[in-house]
Amino acid sequence: MQQEKVTLRELNLRIQQVIKTGLPEPVWVVAEISEIKIHSAGHCYLELVEKSEDEEGPVARARGIIWAFVFRMLKPYFETTTGQVLREGLKVLIKATVEFHELYGLSLNITDIDPGYTIGDLALRKAETIRRLEQDGVIHMNRELELPPVPQRIAVISSEQAAGLQDFLDQLHHNPQGYVFYTRIFPALMQGREAETSIIRAFDTIFRFEDFFDVVVLIRGGGSQADLACFNNYRLAYHIAQFPLPVITGIGHEKDESVADIVAHTALKTPTAVAEFLVDRVSAFDEHLSRQASLVSEGVMAILKSEKQRIDRITRIFSPLVMQELNRRKHRLSRSVHILQSAARNLLKSNHHSLRDIRSRSAHQFRLLFRTERERTAKLTWQTVHSGRQFIRNAALRLEMFEKTNRLTDPAQILRKGFSITYHEDKVVRDSQTLSEGQSIQTRLFRGTVSSRVESTDPGGTGNTSQDDPQKDKTQHKSTTK
Q: Residue 188: pLDDT band by 50, 70, 90 thresholds?
């Protein structure tokens, strides 16, 4: 049997016909937006998926399109009603007709979107996030932290381009009371797909410098309520709940409370409200200190007044007694003065006679001492003069003896007696053994010098005493000559 053959286009046209026949009317479809693109012509192209809790990836996928003339009406209606923009990850209930094109395949022509379903789904997701936080036991952890009475060191998480950030800083730093606050900005995205990760990264950075800050302020500088989705996510809420510093939020929405607000220590509506809260917190502590100072001052004044009254009472009681005691002591002092004066006069009289006797004895002893010292001085003078004269006589005798001895030991006198001095090569000959036959020698006499030649030597003789030493004679002669 020969099988029927069709072309691909014919097959697609058959599928198209089947779909038109089987699904002639629009159907309501529940799906999640996984991708969205808006064409320059105004058309909106969607990638729709269905996810299963049991499987990681999608279990169904389809393309959707909202033509420009429909999208211009659906977009503002949906965003106004839900407070959300059409974005990736949003679950929607759409009304669409199923179309199949032989070239482009299956697509859903979307003509309506039910905002009520999306609102319910967002509320369900928010409730699920809150339930998980409660189940983990962390939902109230940040609220249980103690907020410092004077929160002046503030870490701010916000977008640097946000207008609300500048409002917050102006309100904080230009407060009427003139309180000083120290702020450090940790920039983060406040909307979009990367907002959650960016904010968590900012929290992680602050955690490394935890000791430098008192509180963390999370503020969103303007924008639509549709941008609040990231503040309902579990990861961000979990980080805020477990953060070791109190977190104050000013996300800037009036209609609804995000999960971030629920887990934060303090949730306020706007960045300006956060600044006012911090200023009021410091102001309240300042007023508390003022009240305490007033109470202390009043207490001190009351104590001083009470003590003054007590002292006055004591003074009135003891004043007569004190005067009586003073008078009694005054009379006693007068008697003592009279007694001392009498004793002093008697003592002066007695000492006057004693001083006169002492003066007489001192004068006599001084005269005796002066006479004794004068005699001793005269004796010492005579002894000194006598000793000096005797020393001079002895010195003259020794000098005379030295001169006689010098004359006797003069080499000239020795040569005069017949002695001579023999030289060889200008050296005194002391031993005949130092000479050899044929050597020339010179002999010095009292008058003149004799040159001779050695014919023989005789080793006999034992030499002379030191007095007859020719070397000494020569030396003495040279010294005398000089």
A: very high
